[in-house]
Structure formats: C-alpha cells, structure tokens
Amino acid sequence: SLASDSEFPAKKVVSEYAENEQNWKILEEVVRVAEESGRTPSEVAINWTLQQPGITSVVAAARTLEFLEENISALEF
Fold this sequence. Notes:
Elements: H1 10-19, H2 21-37, H3 41-50, H4 65-73
Domain NADP-dependent oxidoreductase: 16-77
Protein name: 13221_t:CDS:1
Organism: Racocetra fulgida
C-alpha cells in the first residue's frame, strides 16, 4: 500500500500538484518544445529556468552519468 501522509509528507504536495490543470498545461508545453527541439523535457526545463531574470543557477540531481550529461547538455542550447 502507499505510504501515509505522515510517512511521506511530500505525497500531499505531489497530489495537489497533479490535480492542478495549469501544471498539466505547462508540462504539455515543455514536452512539445522538447520534441520540436530534439531535447528532453528535463533539458528544456533547466534551460528555461536558467534564462529567467535573476536566476543564476539551478539545483539538479542526477542518479546516473546519463542524467548528469543530460543536465549539463541543457546549457548547450
């Protein structure tokens, strides 16, 4: 069974995020841009974030070398 809210407090946040229609529209747009540009959604999201005024860095985690390389490649377009 799924963890309770007390065992996994972020579960409530994730659930609320998934219920927000605007978040799904944003995700669809990110996926569309990724497909058009030949990039992954992660690359698009990181690149977009870094282009915002006042943003100088992002915090990105990578569990594998492949994910790390993908995160770094977000800086290349």
